Each structure stands twice: as C-alpha cells, then as structure tokens.
Amino acid sequence: MKKHALITGAGTGIGRALCEKLLKKNHEVIGVGRRPAPLEKLKQDFGQSVTIVEADVGTVSGRNKIHSVVKKQKLDLLVHNAAVLDPVGPISKMKRREWQKHFQINFEGPVFLTQKLLPCLGTGSRILNISSGAAHRSIQGWAAYCMSKAALHMSYECWKEELSGQGILVGSVKPGVVDTAMQEQIRNLDEERFPMLENFRSLKRNNELLDPNTVSRFLAWLLLDAKPEIFTEKDQDIRDEALKPLWDVSNETTE
Ligand SMILES: NC(=O)c1ccc[n+]([C@@H]2O[C@H](COP(=O)([O-])OP(=O)(O)OC[C@H]3O[C@@H](n4cnc5c(N)ncnc54)[C@H](OP(=O)(O)O)[C@@H]3O)[C@@H](O)[C@H]2O)c1
Question: What does the alpha-carbon distance between residue 171 and residue 148 come to, in Å, rounded to a whole number?
Fold first, then answer.
C-alpha cells in the first residue's frame, strides 16, 4: 500500500528534492508552501501522486487549510522543512514584529502543525524536523534563526518524549550547508549585518555546498529505513561519518 507524506516548504530546495525522492519511491505526497508557482511545477512534474497546498505554516488559517486537505487520512511521514532566515542583523536593532513573524514560521509552525495533525498520525508514523547547526551555536547576525532553530530543537525533545507512548517517532536532522535559495539569500547579505558572509561565499566558490539531491537521500534513508532508535536518537548530522555507509549508496535500485 502507498505511504503518505506531508512536507512543508515543498516547492524549492531541500523540500522539493525530498518530495521527488519520496515520489520516486512510490509515496503519495502533500506538498505545502506559500508561493503557487514552485508548487504547481511540482504538480506538473509528478501529477496525481502529489497534492499541493498553498498555505503559510506560520498562521492558524494556513494550518487549518493544511488540516482540511489531509482530513482523516493517515500520515506516515510529516516533515517540517519550511523555514525563513530573516530578519538578519543585530538583536539590538531587531523589530519585534519581524521577530514574531519569524518565530511564527520557524517554531510555532512545526509545533502547532504537529498538534493539528496528531489525529492523522499513528503507530509507526515519523515526524522529522529540519534543524540546523545554528540550533546549537550562535552565528552573529542570525540571532532570530539561531533562537528559532534552538527552540525547534527543544520542541523535538519534548514531542519525542510525549509521543513515544503512542508509537509515533520524532526525529531531527542537520542537513549540512546546502545549495538552495536560502544559501543564495545568505550570499547576498551585507557584511555589516552578517560578518561571516565571506565564509559562505567561499563555500560556493569552492564547490563545497551539498547538493539537495544528496541531502534528500540522507533524509529518505532516515524517514524510511533508519532504525527507530537511530531516527529518534539526536539531531542527526549528514556529516556523521558513522552513518554514511548506511545511506550514501549510489546503487538505488528502487528508482
Ligand atoms: N540550505 C542550507 O544550507 C540549510 C542548512 C541548514 C538547515 N537548513 C534548513 O533546511 C530547510 C529548507 O531550506 P532550504 O535551504 O531548502 O531553503 P529554501 O529553498 O528557501 O526552502 C524553504 C522553503 O520553505 C517555504 N516556506 C518558507 N516559509 C514558509 C511558510 N511560512 N509557510 C510555508 N512554506 C514556507 C519556502 O517557500 P515559500 O516561500 O513559497 O513559502 C521554501 O520553499 C529550512 O528549514 C532551513 O532552515 C538549510
């Protein structure tokens, strides 16, 4: 029987690559995002197996809309991938309204979308948060992002504890530095607001960014094949050499 996955931020970058990966592995995918064009492209490319939902995960109405599409369908996989970087700059100049909007998307979105969709999840379902190294260390200029990803990390710990009795597995993952629109946005920041700018520009120049397809292989392995104790253990890191032999195989016979 086909499995069902819901992925937020499905139109671009890591989310889009993961959608493709799961669709090629015969899943039904519900892809969420705000802009219609990237979602329509996903639908165009994969047809019937994809349902697209234009919704903002940072709003109650957006989450209600997502819920109304899922209805009572069982979800095997729920991936909280949508996130924003803005506002960038010193905390001393941060506008409260911008900070709130940021937290509504990066933190409230995953927490309350999980809450809303709980009736659709059951034994064996997996919830995965896309985390970041920024959840664990401060990066000057990225205060909002570091704080929201750190809060998201704690929400993973709390949900994991609360849902373990229901057989619902909760995981978290650091995808590495990935060649997506978010990285392009980072390279276009100015040094005054983001002192580490040059490091990120040089990663691109030196071809050191990960390809979203590679990341999607790691995520698909975590979601579909990793043992429950590995899936839930910690904020799993794509750079963990001990995990590499388990997912980084070129021989993907199911595609
Ligand atoms: N790229 C990296 O190096 C890197 C590193 C560590 C972690 N991450 C994490 O990886 C995830 C994916 O990012 P990405 O790098 O693939 O960047 P991306 O291409 O910018 O993807 C973010 C996606 O989220 C969607 N989104 C943003 N706000 C939303 C909202 N309120 N409601 C619904 N959808 C929303 C965006 O589409 P719309 O604007 O159309 O809504 C977009 O498709 C994020 O959680 C990010 O923090 C990325």
Answer: 17
